[in-house]
UniProtKB/TrEMBL annotation:
Signal peptide: none annotated. GO terms for biological process: vesicle-mediated transport. SUPFAM superfamilies: TPR-like. The keyword Cell wall biogenesis/degradation does not apply. PANTHER family: CELLULOSE SYNTHASE OPERON PROTEIN C, TPR REPEAT-CONTAINING PROTEIN MJ0263. Pfam families: ChAPs, TPR_11, TPR_8. Keywords: Repeat, TPR repeat. GO terms for cellular component: cytoplasm; endomembrane system; protein-containing complex. This is Tfp pilus assembly protein PilF. It comes from Desulfonauticus submarinus.
Length: 733
C-alpha cells in the first residue's frame, strides 16, 4: 500500500508576517545579518528581473515566491559579504527550502479539513499576546478596571451533542459555521479548539464591547439556518458559547505568572463557563458562572445543600445565593443559601430561609448570587440569626416571655417601606433584616397579642401595596422547647403560613406546624427525625389525628407493626370515621395475619380511593384461599372505583394466571400496561406467562429486565429473569 504524504498548504503574505521569527532564524543559519525588514509591494519590483535575489553594497533584497505566487520582499542589512561568496548560486534553492519549511510549519498549525488555524497555533498566538500585555509599562495588576483596553478575550463556541450528526455532515455544518463567523468576526481570528469546538480571540476591546460582541454572536449562530447539503432540510443544532477576558477575569495574584500559566488559567475558566452555557442554553462569561450559573446537586440533612460551583468559580465562605424556582433569572425565589464549605468544583451551605412549601428547593434548582453583602464566617455556626438569638437571650432573661417573628414578602424593593411599618405598628424590641426580603423581630408580649398586632400589620400592608406578607410566630415559654429552638420554630411557622389558601398568611407555632414539618421529613425519608417531630406535635396536642396516623405509617414502614397498630387505634379512638387510619389499620392487621379484623376495617371505607384499594386487599386474601370467584368480584369492583389505576388489572391477570388461563391473563396485563407502562408487577407477570408458554422469550427477557430495573429489591423478579436467561441459553446451545 502506498501512503501519500499531504502536500504543504499554500503560503500567504500574512504567513510571512506570522512566521517572520522562524524565517529570520532559518536565514541567519547561512546568511549572517543583524537587520531584516519585510515589505509587501503589489507586484515584484522590476530590479529583480528574472531572479529572486538582488545584491546592493550594504543590503540584500530577496523576493519571496512560493508556487509561482509573489508573497513579499525581504531586505537584509548589515550582512557579512565574505559569507555570501560561495552561496550565491545556491541561495535561490535555499530560500525555496526555507519557504517549504514555513509551509510545513504552517501545516502543524492548520486544521486541514476546515482550513483554519488549530489549537497549536491558538496556544502560540495567545501566549504571545498575553506576554505583550503583561510587558506593557501601564500594566498594573492591582489597579485594572473595565477601561483597560489592552485586553485579550478567549471565546469558545461548541456544537453540542455532535454524536447525533454523521461525521461528514458535522464537517459540513462546521464549514457553514466558519463562513458565518468569518463574516461576523472579521478581523478577529478563528481556530479549531477541539473536535466540536471553535475558538475566537478578541484583542483590545473594552469589557462592554466584548460582552456586546458575545451577545451578537450568540444571536447569529442561533438564528442561522443550517441546512442539509442534499435535501436542504433545516438541521437541528444547539451551541454553547463562553468567554473569559484577560486580564479582567483572572485573580490579581495570578497575573504575576508567566504567559504559559495564564493561558492555561484562561482556558480552564472559559471551559467552566462553556459547561454552564451548555446547561442553561445561554451565553456565559466567566464572572456569570458565580452570578447565576450554580445549581443544587444534593439536598443534605439539617437544611443543608450542595451546589456545583466552588472556589474555581470564585465561591468563598459567606457567599449568599438565592434559589430560583426555574432556570429563568426573573423567576420566583424559593429560598436562600449561605455557603460555609468550599471545594474546587463544589460548595456546601445552609438553607437559611426555605420559602413556600410548594417552592421547596430541589436538585437542579438554579442559583443567583444575592445582592446582599457576604457574611463574615470564621466559624460555620455564625449565621444571620446569631445576633437575633443573642438579643432574644438578653430579653428572655429579663422578661421571661418572648416572641420571635419572621416576616417575609416577595419583593426586596419593599424592604425600606416594610421596615418602617413594622416599627410603627409592632414596635419590636429588636429588628434585623435576615435575608432576601425577610425580617426577624423580637417582641416581649403574649403570643395572642403578638398575633393580633401582626394581623394588623398584614392588613395595613395589603391595603397599601396589594402585596402579600407571610408571617411565622414562635414564642417562649412553650412546653419542652428551649431558647435554642426559637428561631427554627419561627421558620417552621413561616413555612406553615404558606399552606393557607388565602390571606392572612400567618401562622402561630403549634402542633399543626410540627406536623407539616414532620411530613416534609417523612417525604425525604428521614424517618427517625420525622418520628421525633410528630411526637413533639402530640406533646402540644395529644388529639392531633394527622400526627398519630402519620406516626403509624412510619412505624409500619420500619416494620414496627404492633406500634403502628397502636397508633392507628389511637387515631380511631379520637376520630372513628378517619378513613386513612381505617385503611392503614386494615393493611397493618393483614400483615399481622389478623385478616378478619382487617376485613372489618376495609369494609368501613367509603371514598372511591380507599374503598378501591380496600377491595384489592380483600380480593387478595380470598385469592390466597383459592376462592377465585369472590376474589374476582372484589377485583372488578376495585377496577370500577380505580379506572385509571393499573393494579386491579394486574391482580385480575394474576388470578387467571394461577388458574392457567393465560390468554385471559395476557388480556388484563396488556390493559394494565396501557394504563401504566412502568407497572413492575405487570411486566414481571407477563414475562412469567411467556416463560410458561415457552414463547416470545426475547420479549420475556426484556420485560423481566425492565421489572428488575424498576423494583430491584424484589427477589422474585430476579428469579424470573434468571429462569428466562437460562432457557434462552439452552435454546442457543
Amino acid at each position: 500500500m502506498i501512503v501519500l504524504l499531504p502536500s504543504p498548504p499554500d503560503l500567504t503574505s500574512k504567513d510571512i508576517l506570522t512566521f517572520q521569527k522562524i524565517l529570520k532564524q532559518s536565514l541567519n543559519q547561512f546568511l549572517k545579518f543583524s537587520e531584516m525588514h519585510i515589505f509587501f509591494p503589489n507586484v515584484k519590483p522590476s530590479f529583480f528581473k528574472n531572479k529572486i535575489i538582488f545584491f546592493e553594497q550594504d543590503r540584500i533584497h530577496i523576493a519571496l515566491e512560493y508556487k509561482q505566487k509573489f508573497l513579499g520582499m525581504l531586505v537584509l542589512k548589515k550582512y557579512s559579504p565574505h559569507k555570501i561568496k560561495g552561496l550565491k548560486t545556491a541561495l535561490p534553492h535555499l530560500i525555496h527550502l526555507i519557504l517549504e519549511k514555513l509551509a510545513l510549519y504552517k501545516m502543524s498549525f492548520l486544521d486541514k479539513e476546515l482550513n483554519i488555524y488549530n489549537y497549536n497555533y491558538l496556544k502560540m498566538f495567545s501566549q504571545k499576546i498575553i506576554s505583550a500585555i503583561t510587558s506593557l509599562d501601564v500594566f498594573n495588576p492591582t489597579s485594572l478596571n473595565d477601561n483597560f483596553y489592552s485586553s485579550f478575550d478567549l471565546i469558545l463556541l461548541k456544537l453540542v451533542k455532535p454524536d447525533k450528526i454523521s461525521p461528514s455532515l458535522y464537517t459540513y455544518i462546521f464549514n457553514q459555521l466558519i463562513s458565518l463567523l468569518k463574516q461576523k468576526c472579521s478581523p478577529w481570528s478563528i481556530f479549531t479548539y477541539s473536535i466540536n469546538t471553535l475558538a475566537i480571540t478578541l484583542t483590545n476591546l473594552s469589557s462592554k464591547k466584548s460582552k456586546l460582541f458575545l451577545k451578537n454572536l450568540w444571536e447569529s449562530v442561533n438564528t442561522f439556518n443550517f441546512s442539509h447539503p442534499i435535501s436542504k432540510q433545516p438541521l437541528s443544532t444547539q451551541f454553547a458559547l463562553a468567554m473569559t477576558s484577560f486580564p479582567h477575569h483572572l485573580k490579581i495574584k495570578d497575573l504575576k505568572e508567566d504567559a504559559k500559566y495564564l493561558f492555561f488559567d484562561l482556558q480552564q475558566k472559559t471551559l467552566l463557563a462553556l459547561q454552564k452555557s451548555e446547561i442553561f442554553n445561554e451565553p456565559f462569561t466567566y464572572p456569570k458562572v458565580i452570578q447565576c450559573g450554580g445549581k443544587i446537586t444534593a439536598l443534605l440533612p439539617l437544611n443543608r445543600v450542595k451546589i456545583d460551583i466552588g472556589s474555581t468559580s470564585g465561591v468563598t465562605k459567606g457567599k449568599r445565593f438565592l434559589i430560583l424556582s426555574n432556570s429563568q433569572l426573573d423567576s420566583k425565589i424559593k429560598g436562600e443559601i449561605i455557603i460555609d464549605k468550599t471545594y474546587n468544583r463544589s460548595s456546601e451551605g445552609k438553607l437559611i430561609l426555605p420559602n413556600a412549601p410548594y417552592l421547596t428547593p430541589s436538585i437542579h434548582d438554579r442559583l443567583k448570587l444575592s445582592s446582599q453583602p457576604d457574611l463574615e464566617i470564621s466559624n460555620p455556626t455564625i449565621w444571620p440569626e446569631h445576633e437575633l438569638l443573642k438579643k432574644a437571650q438578653e430579653l428572655y432573661n429579663q422578661k421571661k416571655q418572648i416572641g420571635l417573628v419572621l416576616i417575609k414578602h416577595s419583593e426586596q424593593s419593599l424592604n425600606l417601606d416594610l421596615e418602617e411599618k413594622i416599627k410603627s405598628i409592632l414596635r419590636p424590641s429588636y429588628i434585623q433584616e435576615i435575608s432576601f426580603s425577610t425580617f426577624g423581630l423580637i417582641l416581649t408580649t403574649l403570643p395572642e397579642k403578638i398575633k393580633k398586632q401582626c394581623l394588623k400589620l398584614e392588613k395595613h400592608f395589603w391595603e397599601q401595596s396589594k402585596k402579600h406578607l407571610y408571617i411565622g410566630i414562635a414564642y417562649l415559654p412553650l412546653a419542652q422547647f428551649k431558647l435554642t429552638d426559637l428561631y427554627l420554630n419561627a421558620q417552621k411557622a413561616l413555612e406553615h403560613a404558606h399552606y393557607f389558601s388565602k390571606r392572612p398568611f400567618l401562622a402561630l407555632f403549634d402542633s399543626t406546624t410540627l406536623t407539616i414539618s414532620a411530613d416534609k421529613l417523612f417525604k425525604l425519608k428521614n424517618f427517625y427525625e420525622a418520628i421525633s417531630e410528630y411526637q413533639n406535635a402530640l406533646l402540644l396536642d395529644p388529639k392531633n389525628v394527622l400526627a398519630l396516623n402519620s406516626l403509624g405509617v412510619i412505624y409500619a414502614s420500619l416494620g414496627e407493626l404492633h406500634t403502628a397498630k397502636e397508633m392507628f387505634i389511637k387515631t380511631l379512638n379520637i376520630d372513628p370515621k378517619n378513613e386513612p387510619a381505617l385503611y392503614n389499620l386494615g393493611r397493618t392487621l393483614d400483615k399481622l395475619g389478623e385478616h378478619q379484623q382487617a376485613a372489618s376495617c376495609y369494609l368501613k371505607c367509603v371514598t372511591p380511593h380507599y374503598k378501591g384499594y380496600a377491595y384489592l386487599w380483600l380480593g387478595l386474601n380470598l385469592e390466597k384461599q383459592h376462592n377465585w370467584s369472590k376474589a374476582k368480584q372484589y377485583y372488578l369492583k376495585a377496577q370500577n372505583l380505580l379506572p385509571t389505576n393499573s393494579q386491579p388489572d394486574t391482580f385480575l391477570a394474576n388470578l387467571y394466571f394461577q388458574q392457567n388461563k393465560n390468554s385471559k391473563a395476557i388480556e388484563y396485563l396488556h390493559s394494565a400496561l396501557l394504563k401504566n407502562s412502568n407497572d413492575a408487577w405487570a411486566l414481571n407477570l407477563l414475562a412469567k406467562v411467556y416463560l410458561q408458554e415457552n414463547k416470545n422469550l426475547k420479549i420475556a427477557e426484556s420485560l423481566a429486565r425492565h421489572s428488575v430495573s424498576l423494583k430491584p429489591e424484589i427477589p422474585d423478579f430476579w428469579e424470573t429473569l434468571k429462569k428466562i436467561q437460562q432457557l434462552n441459553k439452552t435454546l442457543v446451545n
